[in-house]
Structure formats: C-alpha cells, structure tokens
Records
---
Amino acid sequence: MGRLVEEGEVEAGSPLEDALQSIDRGVLVPEFALHENTPSGTRYRRVSRDDRDQRDEWEKHVYSNESLIIEINGLPLDEALPEGTGRGRWTSSSTMPGLIARMIKAVDLSESTRVLEIGTGSGYNPAVLSHLIGSEHLTSIDVSPKLVSRATARLKSLGHTPTTATFDGHKGYPEAAPYDRIIGTTAFPFVPPAWLGQVNEGGVILTNLAGMASGAMLKLHTGPDGAEGRFLDDWAGFIPARHESQPEKTEIDDEEGDTHTSFLGAEVFDDQKSAFLAQLVLGTSRVARILRKDGSPLLLIEDRDGSRAEVETESDGEGFPCSQVGPRRLWSDLEDSYRWWVEQGRPSWSSFGMTVTPDEQYVWHESPTSGRRWRLTPTA
C-alpha cells in the first residue's frame, strides 16, 4: 500500500495509512476471478490462494491497487466456477484500495462516527472502516447472504466484529439507525428514499449515482428537509445494486415513430462525461448494444414503463435511423440534453449537483435554484 502514499492517495503516517497497512486483503479475498472478452461473451478464470500453481499470480493481484471479481451470477466463485472457468455476469467485487481511500477521505470520519456501509462484498472495506472507527460504530449490509456470511467470518478472524446483515440496500438498515454516514459501494440510479430518514442532520451520504449508461460519485450533506450536494471531481464506478426482487417491466402496444438522429448514439456512451448526461436523462432505462442475426449493430434503450428506442449505429446517408415507442421518446429526450451539453461547453460531472427531499429528487447544473434540472424517479 506504500504506492498509494507515493501517488498522493493516502497521507503518510495518517490513520488511514495505518488501517490500509494493517488489513491483510489476502485473508478477505482468498480467491478472485480474472476476465477476458471473447467473441462468445465474457470468460472468467478463478485464481485461488490455495492453488500452489496460482499462488504468485494471486499475490500479484490481491496486493495491488485493483478491483477483484468475487461473485458471478449471485454465486461465490467456488460455486459459479466449479471447474475453474466459465461465463456469466459478475455481481460483486472487492473494491480497489485506492478508491476505498478516496471515499473514506471524502466522508471525514472520526473514531465515534456511526457508519452504514451498503455493500459488504469481500469484507475489505468493512475491515478498513472497523480499524478506523471501531467495529461497534459500523454496520455493513449486502443483498448476497453467502457474501455476508463469509465476510463476517473472515472479519472476525482479523479481530473485527461490525454488525453485518443480509439486507436490501435500497431500504438502508433501520434496525441500527440513525447513522452519521451512509457509504454506498454499489451503484444506484437514484438515492433510495429510505436513506434520508436514517442519517442524522449534518450527516453525509456518499454513493455512486449510476445506471446502465454511466454515473459519478455523489456526496450529499443532510439537513432538516432532505439532502443536497455535488458530484465529486474524481470519477468512479460500481456494480449496480440489486433488489431482493426486481420490478416487472411494463409492456406497451403503441405505434413506433421513425426518425433520424444527427449524431452517433454509441459514441455518446463511450465518453464518461456525455454518458453521465445520458444517464440523467435515461434513469433506470436499460441500454444495450446488440448485433442482429445479419451482424448489423443496433443501440437499444428501453424503460420499465414500456418506452423503447432503437438507433442504428451505421448511417444511411441522411443520418442514423431511429425508431421510438412508448410514453417517453427516450432518444429525443437524450438528443435534446446532448445538444444542451455541447452548447454549455461539455461540462464535467463535477459541474452538477443534486437535491433530495422526501417528495422529489433532481440533479442540477451549477446551482440548485437556477439552470437545467433532471428529475429522477425512484422505483420500488
């Protein structure tokens, strides 16, 4: 962890440096998965501390500043990859130490700060937090029961005994509230309303406000009527938070409207700053790049309310053909905001902030009382 000091992520001699130096990440991450993209999808390979032939490779990664995959398809790696390799979608990872350091510095902890962490994961972040504030002040939850069980046991072996529970992070954790800080190590496309009632006035909420398009790190300060704050200068991304049960998507029967778009949609999502703007417009919508049977590419956007947009990523000479259906014209909304963003000089996410009350939440540009707003609608 000495490199984090050299790079300025951690102050030499600070309590945070002591915590990072004291926690053996290898105890908490005895195995992880490496991945590679192949023509038939993402392929994973399990790397274990207990495999003598993999020991050097395991040490190289587990003691470096990188995030490590620890769960695939909601299963721990020994169950998801019993043969050592396989495919699927990763659903949890052990956060890179440098990002943990940045988040902890952003929330300004003291020894008596009461913290709720959303996303126990491997237990590495809870271990660092426990070292800093004491296990008695930390509650850590995760929707994955096996991750919670294993992390709790490994934390105990290191002498840390925070309150841990299997719980849906969208609900916070009222049993141990109130807290001075809520730290989310998973991504949410909105601020879960339940969090507001669980943080003391003058507290801080730090989370990754993100969806399938993109996102950024958000720091909110709580007050008597809600919370308000800005997005951080440094970008970071997390795996999307899972509900205990996912809401159903609405099906709708409507006539498609065929139009053309003047810019290539796929490029909007390739740039972190423009993709952040797209995320504000699209909210909980699903974004996917797919290939038809004939091999031609298509950008697909669809929302649970039945709204849907299909955008060709190859020009027909007049532009990029686009069809839209449903109560919202998703692509038209996105194109309108994109043009505004270009006119404003392509501002970064740190130019934006957010206001959250029990009744509404919206992102704003530059000021909460003037300029453009994007209203976010929490889903059940």
Note: The chain is about 25% helix and 30% strand.
---
Amino acid sequence: QSIHNLLEASKSQTQKSADVLDKLLANMLGNPIGQTFGKNATVKVYSQEEAGYRGYMAKVRLNNPNALKMVLAGDSVKSRGETTSHAARRTGAILAINAGGFMSKGGYLTPIGTTVVDGKIRTFSNNTDLSFVGFNKNGRLVGGKISSQAEITKKGILQGASFLPTLLQNGKRMTIPKQWANTRQPRTLIGHFDNGDLLLIVIDGRRKGWSNGVTLEEAQRKLQEFHVVDAYNLDGGGSSAFFYNGKLLNRPSGGKER
C-alpha cells in the first residue's frame, strides 16, 4: 500500500516514478539479473519464479523510438521461418521476444492479421477477433482493433503484429474468450507501466518440474500487481522465446526454439 501511494503521488514526476517502479519490481522480483544502459534505451531484466511457473521479464525505458523494430522471418512475409535468437543476432538486438501468430501452408509461414514494419503495412486484415499490437512514432505501445489501413497511418504506427486477446485496457481486465479461459500455457506478453516504460514477459510452460505455464487470468492479475496499464497476449506455446544480451534465457516448451 505504501509503494502504491508513492506511485500515485509521483506520477507527474517521471524520474521519481521510475525510481519507485524499480523499487516495486525489486521488492517483488529481486534485483535485475541483467541491465543494459544504452543511448537508445535502458533495459532491466528480471527472473520470475512463482508457484508453478518460471519466466523472464524486461522493463524498457526508451530514449529513441527507433530502438524498437518488428522483424519478419528472413525479412519476408512468406518464409521457411526464423528463430527469435537468429533474428536478434542478425539485426544486432540486445533484447528480443517473439511476436504475432502465423499460418503454415506447404512448408511456408506467413503472419496472421496485420503486420507493420518501419511504417510499411506488410500484411493487413480487419479480422475483429485479432488484436493488433505495435508501436507508434513516439515509441508508445498501441493496440486493439484496427479496422482500416488509414487508421494505421493516422495513428503513426511504425511497427506491429497481431494476436489475441487484449489482457488489460486502462488498467482494467478484459474478458478472456471462452476457448482461451483458464488454460495453463507458455506465454509471451507485452504491455506498458503507468509511467510509460515497456514491459516484455515470457513465461515457460509444458515442462514438468520446471514450469507449468500460466493462465491468462493469472497473467492479468500479475500485470495489475506490476502497475501495468495496457497489456496484450502474443503468440505463446512453443513460440515463446526471450533473448537477451546474446543468449536465449528461457526454456521453450518444444525443447528448442521454434
């Protein structure tokens, strides 16, 4: 309660808010297991371990929106696929997670929904079941339903992919679709804190003795404890991957990266 009151009191003071948020995370997760202080962004990585699951979380403070990039497998809409680690290494990324869902046909993979790379719309779909998750020209997380290509341009969206469902909106839990409810799986999640810092989480699952995964309902509650405002579920299961500082930190459910 004391930390919550401090956060509320310091919202208008960005640096103080960041300091208090760091204290909050340290109290809940311990000290960061890795930190990167670059001119484009500050990255702090934490290890998560709760009853029944394990994973990794990164808090990112952006100084330059160009530090964010959506990467297609092989930089192509249609490809044989590429692991998160490989994509990260070839683009020189410090931190990388997997993003949207995909379709497979004839041995080739294509992203589902709407995909935006460097402001260019590489795929588009107005499927209302999907949530778009991306970043605008200010490096702010934007997401939800995208109904037209003009909307992407109007919102200044530069990077993004699609999956489902939306977990939190303005700090409130969104309804989890029935087919996704109360199912324990590996997860990849993205959101932003009330001070604007970004949050990226990968939770391992389907690995007995290591991690059973989490339900989306559990994820919603945990995100609220972290003072996350908006949050989205990305592709999970065997796709979930957390790469930091040259290494894959998590343990993918299939035994190796997808």
Note: The two ends are 41 Å apart (CA to CA).
---
Amino acid sequence: NNQTADTCEKWRIIGLFNNITKSDGTKENLVKIFRDDSIGEFSWDSSDSSVNYGDGVNDWTDADLMKLLNPGYDSLSVGGSLYYNAKSGTCYVDSYNDTTSCDFTSTGLKNDTTRNAIEEVVWNLGSTSDYESASNGLASHWYGYERGTTVYTGRPTAWTGKIGLIYLSDYGYATSGGTTKDRAACLAKEFYNWHLSDFSDCKGNDYLYNSSNVQWTLVPHSAFASGVFYVSTDGSVGSSLANVTYVVRPAIFLKSNITVKSGTGSEND
C-alpha cells in the first residue's frame, strides 16, 4: 500500500544477462537486481580458531553469509535463513564464530510473493590473485575471472542458489563516467586504482558505489584461504579476511515471467 520511494525498498537493475543457467539446467535471459540499501554489516564467513586461525573460509557454498541470505538453513542456531525468512536471531561477526543479535523483520524478504519472484541459478565463483594493473584489473578481466576456473585450492567454481552478492565486474560496468573521464576511459582503467583523483568520475558516477560503506562482493581471492574481495569507500577494490564485517547488499536474478506493472523505473515512478 502507498508505494513510494520513501515507503518501499529500492532495488536497482544491474543488467540483463544472457543464457543464465537455472537450477534445472535450462538457460534463460534473466534480469539481475540488487538492494540499494544494505541490510547491515556482517562477516562473509567466520570460523573456529582451529580453521584458518578464525579468519573464516572463502567458500561461498558453505559461507555463513550465504546461509543467512538463502533458504534451507532454518535449523541452524546462528544466521540460518534469517534474511530470507525476515526473522530475528543471531548472526556471525568477527573472528572465532563470534555472534551478535540481528533483526530482519523489517529488512528481510517481505512475503512468499517476493520470495517466489527469485530464480534459483548457477552463480560463478571464479577469481584471480592478479588485478592491480590495466593489463589484468579491468572490468572485462574481472568478468572473465569470475566465470573462470581459477580458485583457491579445493574451492568450487560455481554455486546454485537464490541470493548472492554483486560481482566486481558488476561494479565496473555500472559506471557511466563523467566529463573528465568518460565511461570508456573508466573501463580502460583498473578499478584497483579508481580512488585516484583523476578518476573520480568513475566511482562518482557508478550506481553500485557507496561512499559511506565498504561492501562485500561474491568474489573470493584465489591466493588465500580466507580472502574475499570488497569495494571500498574510496572507489577502489581490494581483498580482506572473510571474518571482517562489511555491509551486505543482496543480489538476485528475477524469474523471467516477472513483468513491469507500471511506472518508468525511476526512483519516483
């Protein structure tokens, strides 16, 4: 009722992606969207002190954050499907499986109609350890890394599920550039260095950028057992231990039968 930009959640379109593999093995062209506001700050994963020194494990298929966001983990005493079911409980933050109270009764998925709009798909989990120059750190490079097979030893290259996070390539391609550096110039610059003042147009005109919060991505670091990539508040990208708490903005693929009911797609319409 009374749907306005102030009373509703704002989800934004990342893009139309071709030939996305669904959980039944078929492929469709699907729209990917993300939640514009975060649902809070949480660890990507935490672990007992005997596992990676408590720094977490960068395996999304078993990550604490994955289990917080997705269905099927209701039996877990910490984090299990709380966002998906719009419930409150405890969530993982920091090292050694530390926890804190968390409440998704107002920020979680609203109802079964909303949940049923989400397609279960194959999410790629490829990565890299080299990304700091124009020869290996452009959005086009990341798009390839994410869909590749380079991972930390023993890690999976894909996961089938409903709710993930943005990719680094999503962040790069979301820029429109500006007057000093246009989109082409931004996409020709490694976004490891988008914090440089000469490239302020790149992050400043990127709708996935958030100047107030460091945000998690879905991309693990291929050289470290606990490393996961993030987008920084200065516009650059880097990796951190999985147990660190950064903001979480869920990303999903809509089912292909979801259509526009009304409006132009602007914030106010």
Note: The chain has a mean pLDDT of 95.
